[in-house]
Description:
Blueprint: H1 7-18, E1 24-28, H2 34-42, E2 47-50, H3 53-59, E3 68-71, H4 80-83, E4 89-93, H5 96-108, E5 113-119, H6 132-139, H7 142-146, E6 150-157, H8 165-186, E7 195-197, H9 204-209, E8 214-217, H10 219-222
Parallel strand pairs: 1-2, 1-8, 2-3, 3-4, 4-5, 5-6, 6-7
Pyridoxal-5'-phosphate is lined by residues 28, 30, 51, 72-73, 158, 200-202, 216-220.
Amino acid sequence: MKSEQSVESVIRHFQQELSGTGARLVAVSKTHPVELIRQAYDAGQRLFGENRVQELTAKQPELPADIEWHLIGHLQTNKVKYIAPFVHTIQSIDSLKLLQEIERQAAKAGRVIQGLLQFHIAAEETKFGLSWAEAEELLQSETVRALQHVRLAGVMGIATNTEDEAQLRREFGTLRGYFQQIKAAYFPTDDVFREISMGMSGDYRLAIEEGSTLIRVGSAIFGNRTYPAAQ
Ligand SMILES: *Cc1c(COP(=O)(O)O)cnc(C)c1O
């Protein structure tokens, strides 16, 4: 961003840009203070994404209770218990073990948590996510049939960090294809299974054209991130 633009005006800009598309905005507030999150909230933003459990649990009590918190980063099973009491959606489900732990902790908290299956769609090796084969195994498991406290709501992916538009479209198209196949095979009549989370500050317009329903945008709203370790 545009440091001369307020968070409020950027949020209003996104509201206009997204109206009439099938996509909603998840404002990715990681590394940014609660004051900036509140500015976005005051402009009407309700979906926020964080990628670290510790940061999320520190911010959540400081902010209005009707925020829909999305965990978008890699989640270790031993940390699920800290967010289960309030998190709305966990976008980064990438193993059966993690799904089982979310079910267990959501049951304990007396809640239902939405989950997205995170797929590996990027060329980079380092990004987390399921392969198609791993996802099929997970979806065919007894665990998924028995879920009572997790509602699987769709898929999520992180595209390659590249300006190559054709490659980005290919990767987004792959994720959309996974969504469609899973929808047809496992959730044909389930209205909750409807989300394709893809697109970030640099590529969200392409992602929307390729069918994104949730864009995850951080720096285009809040500015560049200054990581504490780098200060
Ligand atoms: C940080 C992050 C984003 C937002 O990235 P920007 O480029 O700042 O918009 C989106 N998705 C995930 C998984 C992230 O970790």
